[in-house]
Design a protein that fits this description.
The chain has 117 residues and is mainly β. It has no helices and 11 strands. The termini are far apart.
């Protein structure tokens, strides 16, 4: 069964940092790219960052550029999101998705990130 599982969320003070992880399975999954999005209650899900699985090319939402870094471990089908200089506006549920080359996107269940002021 194809799936992605996020981990690493939690509670952090403003100015702090967190690292999120996301593992895509099965290992044989042919991934085109993986990405992170986030969503607050009552709001639409918004894009955060994406990484191309072959080239390693990345792109970011404007409000996280310079603070968040997305990177990957191809051998483990894992993508990471390093989040620095967090502020209360970053409080959201963070979702990972994997885009297989020949299939639809696979979304995880999300991990809660809470930044206290």
């Amino acid at each position: 069964q194809e799936q992605v599982v996020e981990s690493g969320g939690g509670l952090v003070e403003a100015g702090g940092s967190l690292r999120l992880s996301c593992v895509a399975s099965p290992r044989s999954l042919s991934i085109a790219d993986m990405a992170w999005s986030r969503q607050a209650p009552g709001k639409e899900r918004e894009f955060v960052a994406r990484i191309n699985w072959i080239s390693g090319g990345t792109n970011y939402a404007d409000d996280v550029k310079g603070r968040f870094t997305i990177y990957k471990d191809n051998n483990k089908n894992t993508v990471f999101l390093d989040m620095q200089s967090l502020n209360p506006e970053d409080t959201d549920i963070y979702y990972c998705n994997a885009k297989p080359i020949f299939d639809r996107e696979i979304w995880g269940q999300g991990t809660q990130v809470t930044v206290s002021s």
